[in-house]
Design goal:
Elements lengths: L2 H25 L5 E6 L2 E7 L5 E7 L2
Antiparallel strand pairs: 1-2, 2-3
């Protein structure tokens, strides 16, 4: 498998993990935050004061 395909599959796994984490947070209100990392990108799922789930994606330098 070439490098491009490995990167593509890793990115798909990253996106899938984010959505599975989101579903997990919907099912369990006790979870306050989750963090997912892909290469130089980091996505955090957090709850605000109203217990709504917020996404924040930042580039890591």
């Amino acid at each position: 498998m070439n490098k491009r395909m490995k990167k593509k599959q890793a990115y798909k796994a990253y996106i899938k993990a984010i959505f599975e984490g989101y579903e997990k947070m919907l099912e369990n209100p006790e979870i306050d935050s989750l963090t997912f990392t892909y290469l130089h990108e980091q996505t955090s799922l957090t709850r605000d004061e109203q217990k709504q789930i917020r996404f924040l994606t930042v580039d890591k330098a």
